[in-house]
Amino acid sequence: MESPFKPEITVFHCINAFPDVEGLPLGQGENFSIKAFKLPCTGMVKDVYLLRAFEAGADAVLVFACLQGQCRYVEGNLRAAKRVKFVQKLLDEIELDGRRLALFNIAAGDAAAAAEILHKALPELVKLGPNPAV
Amino acid sequence: MIVGEQKSIAEIREIIAPYRKLLILGCGTCVKTCFAGGEDEVAVLASALRLALKKEGKEIAVEEFTVERQCEDAFIQEAAAHISPGTAVLSLACGAGVQAIARRFAKTPVLPGVNTTFIGVLDKQGLFTEECLGCGDCKLAIFGGICPVTRCAKKLLNGPCGGSQKGKCEVSPDLDCAWQQIIERLKILGQLGNLRVYVPPKNWKSSHAGGPRKLVREDHII
Question: Which CATH number fits domain A8-128: 1.10.3470, 1.10.287, 3.40.50, 3.90.550?
Fold first, then answer.
């Protein structure tokens, strides 16, 4: 019997949103795997990092940024949101599906919210299936 | 600077379709500033193309390189090490850069990845505006530094048409009336008298209408 699809998720997150993924209350025996990149601010997420994550085999890429108006560097999360939007369009253009990439704003230190978002996003990411460019 | 816009992925894919080895060549000057063809844009395009091609099971080697300026042979030479037989170059420079690369690498197909649009300025982050038509006969001194040839929709040289409303052109409400701006600027400069200077009809011979132009600087030719 074929084993169920476990999406490989690459996470880019601001260390002010949560310090590391290991600290997220994700529970046991998760049906996804995570590769995480922590950044001093999501404003450092460049378009090419998001694309290269897909090249490296990610089925989905999620960016966790601070709430609007609460970026320590004023506009880092706004820049990240713009870049995510740009790359989503690009993914649609190359028929990889822009829904594989998403940005979420969470309050500083709200690890529970990040874990909940991951769980909620999972069914759709599973539905999208494996990255067709791998 | 020369302002350009990257072509759509669909068009680029059509252009590169016949080739199996591709060098995406960026230019680190004008097109870098307008986010069309600098090192970052080269990396993004290369990554997007690799993903698109892999998805379709096509094997094309995509390499990336950026030179300081594609319109100068001294910089172009740096790209030579990345161009081997069978490589096609997708240049993300302006049209001048694309042609300079084609001239330098006579046996290499050189393809444009950018649409060159205009000579302009960075008005504010992310907004570029056309400011110069390159007409070859600059009269900015009498227009207070604002070019009606480029910025007046009707290219009027002797005052406003009278059709503007609230400082906006009647051709488009998004367009500032160049003549209103000229007059306001001349007021600040105390040069309103310039409006009495008759500017004769423009001789377009010095513009591109007179055919491809050439500039010779004998003092720099050995």
Answer: 3.40.50
